[in-house]
Amino acid sequence: MGKEYIYFEKQHDLMCGQHALNMLIQRKEFDASHLTNFVERLDQREKEISGMPSNSFRSQNASESGFFSIQVLAAALISQNLVLFDTNKPKYAHYMFEPEEAQAFIINQSQHWFTLRRFGDMWFILNSISNGPRFIATQLLQPYFAKLIENRASIYVVEGDLNVCEADVAAMNGELSVIDGILETEELDILVNSVGNDNEDEDMQKALAASLEYFNDEQNQDVPTHAASTEEESD
């Protein structure tokens, strides 16, 4: 008994954003159709704001192969009463030095989304390109983040109430085993370098990078207002 308590999704196409969301909330809540609805609402809003005609508008919120932008992920999480905040913001920078104070993080590295989540007092990397959940020792979280930042990763803290899941209960009962774990500092380089995605063309990578910047600009008021207004429209 052990890691079977943790809900995990393996990579399908470039649906890493969908996998990261579902593994964060520990159930299959979102599929491509759900996230595409968020894309369409976000695209429509951006066209209205920019005044750009539809025939010249290119979405920054999704690729044809299934990669979703930070705005889409944020909108999806708001529907679950969860909010993403950029740890580059001064108000949230302390999580880079005390990551164990958070419940979870969503990370983008090399245009690939994955989740870092706590169950009880145990942290696991939930990355759809891995074979399964990977335990990471709490004392390695801060150096792990430092190496991610060196590799130009974007790290977003998840705030809000994550419902207690089966893995939380298992961790508190001592039933989560460490089969595949990161226990030594020397293992962090291999871990960070194992993430990558070269399947997107250069133009789409630029568009998705712009998406990250756009989302960060919207956090000037410490709330992802674009995502919030999208959710309001869906009510």
TrEMBL record:
PROSITE patterns: JOSEPHIN, UIM
GO annotations of cellular component type: nucleus
Catalytic activity: Thiol-dependent hydrolysis of ester, thioester, amide, peptide and isopeptide bonds formed by the C-terminal Gly of ubiquitin (a 76-residue protein attached to proteins as an intracellular targeting signal)
Josephin domain residues: 3-173
Subcellular location: Nucleus
Enzyme class at the top of the EC tree: hydrolase
Domain of life from the UniProt record: Eukaryota
Family annotation (InterPro entries): Ataxin-3, Josephin, UIM_dom
Keywords: Hydrolase, Nucleus, Protease, Thiol protease, Transcription, Transcription regulation, Ubl conjugation pathway
Active site: 16, 16 (nucleophile), 112, 112 (proton acceptor), 127
GO BP annotation list: protein deubiquitination; proteolysis
EC number per UniProt: 3.4.19.12
GO molecular function terms attached to this record: cysteine-type deubiquitinase activity
Pfam families: Josephin (PF02099)
Protein name: ubiquitinyl hydrolase 1
Annotated source species: Panagrolaimus davidi
